[in-house]
């Protein structure tokens, strides 16, 4: 039943005038799976909060797309050559920025998504890894209101400053700085450093202090796959043929790495009996940005054949060698195309393939890095052909929880094998709960099933409420008040109306919890007779996290927070917290003034009585600007400062006009 609420009485908010506070992104967090990180480029039009990505429209005017994208990749590789990380290039499925997903290794996009949208008060924004940011972690977004210039920094030489107009921003310098931020490096006060806190002049070469910072965080670059030196033919690493290998259907894979420009890896293979040809590959795409040369040699070290990676966008190598029946052994040599180049290092997979050409031609591969969403293909990493193994509560799969910084998450990658397939996953709530249980499920790829989920208890009774199907196909179920130390079961199935009944999906179950570093923003008491307001100023465009807590003796009470632009009156965010629960919400907000409105509501038909609230906030993105503040004069300078404004007494006035709202309440 809808309730129409018109012309509420507005009272003075009994809020304390709060002192200035600073909201800082969290730095120093190392990315999990640091050797398996990737970059992707979402298409224009992909949603970023209430805005839309427009990076192609922004940068295609200054360089060809492959040129400026290569600059972005080179920015990450410039850090990777010094640290124990790998950054590869992968396809982006063009899901909205921040869509619920896996913190690392989501099959739909890279950890580092490069985009742009109009912003105020800065040149670019980036988000280091932090659990509270979800898949926003790693995003690098330029301000499309700015004017960028393209310079390729050949031989580490910067642009001629005399040719730069006032307001020009060197693209590579910005990308290099922001890439450092997304890797977890904080800004500094060293004006010669790439990580200097503000944009001054082009800087495309890492300072010793920059290199020391990234190696302190991730360690110096190493080769964890090379147990013994394999830098010559005589000490080549044997790639053994597994016992029971079916050469008609299976491929032998071994991981390797070039840890320095001069590094060379030798491998030895002994052809299987009866084989007349073998195909060998260096797979670097999606793994690293290595540009390698692959050579096949005989036992005398003579080169039989060779090939080299075409570019950073096409960095796999493949050779097929025939007439191997008479050869007792073959050697493979992997080296950099250019030992002095930044792309001379990186991890790769070495593959040995005895299958026929016809069988290899039937392989399916992920689309090119700019091809958009992929269709389902048979050997995709997430495909799981099980049917009937976890279709009941008693046989539910128990995924391993991801113990992250501020929340307990379960991350699931699986598949639906038929319209009749049902997957159950057992998750256990933590001993202390302060927030909701939120579960999301989403199909993967351009052709995917419409997947639905339910959350049930041990008796199979539904416990989730507020089930929602989002425009992008993500299905969400919330459990507003989960019990501590209890088992819950997530049931994933195909919607009966889905036109596709087979495909992959990702699911995320998260028990939300307040974040320790949050800043107190507002608190007070509410009744059904009045709303309360506070004016708040955001000093820069940032991604903000808000934690709204409600407390009441009546469990049916709740608080709704509505954030309005103070000048345009546009609603920017709405969040509802039930009594005893903290509700967490992320929102991109532009620089400017906002009105925060707090309203007491009740669950169902219960009357609105009394409820108290507390709101905390934190800025979880970091920006770069060109504020010319001398740190020597102000060592405490912080471009991310914000402050609370005064609250309103009596009626809420906006200039000489009464600020009147009319809205429909459809339930908490």
Structural features, described:
The chain is mainly beta and 668 residues long. Helices cover 7% and strands 35% of the residues. The chain contains five helices and 42 strands. The strands form eleven sheets. It has a six-stranded antiparallel β-sheet, with no helix packed on it. A six-stranded mixed β-sheet has the order 6-3-7-9-8-38. The chain is globular and about 90 Å long. The N and C termini lie close together (12 Å).
What's this model, at a glance?
The protein has 668 residues and is mainly beta. The chain contains five helices and 42 strands.
Helix share, percent: under 10%
Radius of gyration: 28 Å
Mean pLDDT across every amino acid position:
85
Q: Helix/strand-derived class?
A: mainly beta
Q: Let me know the largest β-sheet.
A: 6 strands, antiparallel
Strand order of the largest sheet: 2-39-31-36-33-34
Contiguous helical run count: 5
What fraction of residues sit in β-strands?
35-45%
Find the count of extended strands (DSSP E, 2+ residues). Answer: 42
Query: What general outline do the C-alpha atoms trace?
Result: globular
Span between N and C termini? Answer: 12 Å
Low-pLDDT windows of residues:
1-21, 635-668
């Amino acid at each position: 039943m809808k309730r129409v609420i018109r012309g509420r009485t507005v009272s003075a908010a009994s809020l304390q005038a709060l002192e200035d506070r600073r909201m800082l992104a969290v730095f120093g967090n190392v990315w999990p799976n640091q050797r398996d990180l990737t970059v992707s480029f979402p298409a224009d039009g992909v949603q970023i909060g209430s805005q839309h990505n427009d990076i192609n429209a922004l940068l295609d005017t200054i360089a060809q797309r492959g040129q400026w994208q290569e600059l972005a990749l080179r920015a990450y590789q410039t850090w990777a050559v010094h640290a124990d990380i790998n950054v590869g290039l992968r396809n982006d499925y063009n899901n909205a920025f921040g869509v619920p997903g896996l913190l690392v290794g989501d099959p739909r996009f890279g950890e580092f998504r490069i985009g742009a949208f109009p912003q105020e008060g800065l040149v670019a924004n980036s988000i280091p890894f932090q659990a509270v940011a979800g898949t926003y972690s790693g995003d690098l977004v330029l301000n499309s209101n700015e004017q960028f210039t393209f310079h390729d920094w050949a031989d580490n030489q910067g642009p001629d400053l005399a040719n730069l107009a006032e307001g020009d921003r060197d693209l590579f310098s910005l990308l290099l700085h922001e890439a450092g931020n997304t890797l977890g490096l904080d800004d500094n006060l060293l004006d010669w450093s790439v990580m200097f806190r503000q944009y001054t002049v082009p800087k495309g070469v890492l300072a010793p202090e920059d290199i020391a910072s990234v190696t302190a965080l991730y360690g110096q670059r190493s080769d964890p796959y090379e147990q013994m030196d394999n830098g010559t033919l005589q000490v080549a690493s044997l790639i053994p043929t597994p016992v029971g290998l079916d050469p008609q259907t299976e491929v032998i894979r071994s991981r390797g790495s070039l840890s320095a420009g001069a590094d060379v890896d030798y491998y030895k293979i002994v052809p299987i009996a009866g084989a007349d040809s073998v195909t060998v590959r260096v797979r670097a795409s999606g793994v690293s940005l290595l540009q390698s040369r692959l050579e096949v040699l005989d036992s005398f070290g003579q080169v039989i054949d060779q090939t080299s990676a075409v570019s950073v966008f096409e960095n796999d190598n493949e050779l097929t060698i025939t007439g191997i029946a008479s050869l007792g052994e073959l050697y493979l040599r992997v080296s950099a195309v250019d030992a002095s180049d930044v792309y001379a290092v990186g991890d790769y997979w070495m593959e040995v393939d005895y299958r026929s050409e016809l069988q290899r031609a039937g392989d399916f591969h992920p689309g090119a890095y700019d091809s958009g969403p992929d269709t389902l293909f048979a050997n995709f990493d997430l495909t799981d052909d099980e049917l009937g193994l976890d279709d009941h509560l008693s046989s539910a799969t128990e995924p391993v929880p991801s113990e992250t910084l501020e929340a307990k998450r379960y991350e699931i990658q699986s598949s639906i094998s038929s319209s009749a397939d049902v997957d159950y996953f057992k998750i256990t709530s933590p001993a202390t709960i302060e927030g909701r249980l939120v579960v999301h499920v989403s199909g993967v790829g351009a052709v995917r099933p419409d997947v639905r989920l339910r959350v049930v208890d041990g008796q199979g009774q539904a416990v989730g409420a507020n089930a929602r199907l989002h425009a992008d196909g993500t299905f969400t179920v919330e459990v507003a008040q989960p019990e501590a130390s209890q088992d819950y079961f997530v049931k994933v199935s195909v919607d009966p109306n889905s036109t596709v009944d087979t495909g992959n999906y990702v699911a995320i179950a998260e028990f939300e919890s307040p974040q320790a570093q949050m800043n107190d923003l507002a608190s007070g008491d509410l009744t059904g007779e009045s709303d309360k307001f506070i004016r708040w100023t955001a000093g820069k465009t940032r991604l903000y996290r808000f934690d709204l807590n409600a407390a009441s003796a009546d469990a049916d009470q709740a608080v709704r927070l509505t954030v309005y632009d103070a000048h345009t009156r546009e609603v920017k965010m709405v969040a509802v917290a039930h009594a005893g629960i903290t509700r967490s919400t992320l929102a991109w907000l532009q620089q400017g003034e906002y009105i925060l409105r707090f309203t007491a509501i009740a669950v169902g038909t219960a009357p609105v009585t009394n409820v108290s609230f507390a709101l905390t906030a934190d800025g979880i993105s970091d920006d770069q600007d060109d504020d010319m503040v001398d740190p020597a004069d102000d060592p405490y300078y912080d471009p991310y400062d914000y402050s609370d404004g005064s609250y309103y007494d009596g009626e809420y006035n906006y200039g000489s006009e009464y600020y009147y709202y009319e809205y429909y309440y459809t339930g908490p």
